[in-house]
Amino acid sequence: MLKKGMKVAVLTGAGISAESGIRTFRAEDGLWEEHRLEDVATPQAWERDTEMVWRFYQERRRQLLEVDVNPAHDALVELEKGFGVDFTLITQNVDDLHVRAGSKRLIQMHGELRKLRCEECGHVCEAMEPEQLMEDYVPCSNCSNQRLRPHIVWFEEMPMGVWDYEAAVHDCDVFLVVGTSGHVYPASNLLPIARHTGSYCIGINLDPPLNVDYFHEFHQGKAGEILPEMVKEWLES
Ligand code: NAD
Ligand code: ZN
Question: Closest Cα partner for 30 from 16, 21, 42?
């Protein structure tokens, strides 16, 4: 049971946004929206087939306008209100649903679809105006580069916020993992780390993830149904 004064860290994956209508990455066939990950989510793919990778992420970015938060995102906002500085949310998701729900103590370790980044000068900008969601490349507003890249962590690249999320995982009393398959490293390693550093580990997933054996408690089912109930119980205790 999670009690006030304890530190809680939460790791979410694509499964928490599934009930909002965003498809997950399918580990069984290695496809993300019908694309092989190595074709769209590596620096090599961006080098080799920039246009295709750009179109893929533009489609994902446009999709953000068609979806909305679900009760699982809202429940984590309530949990944060209850635990304040003792709460950290780490997400592998690149959608903006945790932000839109109102989560503040949030680390987006794989980047953000809403943002683009300049490979020449490092400038990062939020780019969600209608013309920035078309198929054309978006130029940098800070230098002469005509082609910003998605502000996404691709395979072989360093995740964002590493020190902060590792500290949160090491320090937490309770580690809650929601809707992640446990296939994507290094996020998949956070559960074993939390377990070995003495946290109580709780999992919620539609199906048992790859690393299910590390949980003290595993709840099988939909995040949008299980998480709100769980959080309500914790906050009332
Ligand atoms: P994943 O797609 O590999 O696994 C999703 C997991 O969610 C599965 O284990 C599935 O059983 C579970 N799930 C599906 N519906 C659920 C529900 N309603 N409630 C609870 N669980 C549910 O996800 P991952 O581990 O996050 O890895 C995906 C990678 O691809 C990440 O790197 C991520 O950045 C990227 N990705 C992001 C998004 C997004 O931002 N929404 C979507 C697809 C892929
Ligand atoms: Zn620039």
Answer: 42
